[in-house]
Amino acid sequence: MNNTGLHLQNFASWKKLKGAYMQRFETVFGTQKPVIAMVHLGALPGTPLHDKERGLVGLVEAARADLAALQSAGVDAIMFGNENDRPYEFSVDTASTATMAYVIGQLRDQITVPFGVNVLWDPRSTIALAAATGAAFCREIFTGTYASDMGYWAPDAGSAMRYRKQLGRDDLFMLYNVSAEFADSLDRRPLPDRARSAVFSSVPDAVLVSGQITGEAAKMEDLEAVKMVLPDIPVLANTGVKHDTVAEVMRVANGCIVGSSLKVDGDTWNAVDPDRARDFMDRAKAAR
Question: Per-residue b/e over 244-270, b at no fewer than 16 CB within 10 Å?
Fold first, then answer.
């Protein structure tokens, strides 16, 4: 085969691979542009903000109410996270992961949409929780180096992906956040270059673009720039999508993850507001 034929063969194989990214994405979420809604668990046992009086029963009941409101609003998927475990850690206590598994287990028969997990900011614990609960997907910071509110941050994608293999979860859909919240990247390459590199070196299933903190929007120029260099890889807005911006976000991105906007008064730490959640989904569905 001459060089031209080999080049065309390689190109055809690459196009097939890129098409597989989108196909798997739609298979997992059931739509081309999903809205993944957050169930923010209350502060877990052992963390500074944990409410001992409400205990495990309180954690389960609050999560149950948020889950019901979000599913009633028609979200495409749910993600359970421990956003209330401030200040965050890079290696969480075993009790945190175990408690999250317990809460999800108590709700498992009530979950009617695909669900995922995120244990901030611990990739291995996130994957362990996904394996324990049967989650379809997970989200984390798996790559990069950062100066953060929690100190020097250097996640290890190699260790995380090997751990996924060890636990028999090759099917676990991996959402890679490439612009960390509460942190500044020490890698001075432009964000699109870091995103391209993460896809090449770490093989995520989708890429997430975030704002600086929870509930703060990613810059549209960042979202557009990453999507431009990854046209055949799912790219989602990870934070700060609002009712009045969801249409613009959906124009560029392959979906979004939303939490704060669906809460009472749009406050991250409040319960889900069923009316706000329904209104958001009406707008998201109209936009896509």
Answer: ebbeebbebbbbbbbbbbbbeeeeebe
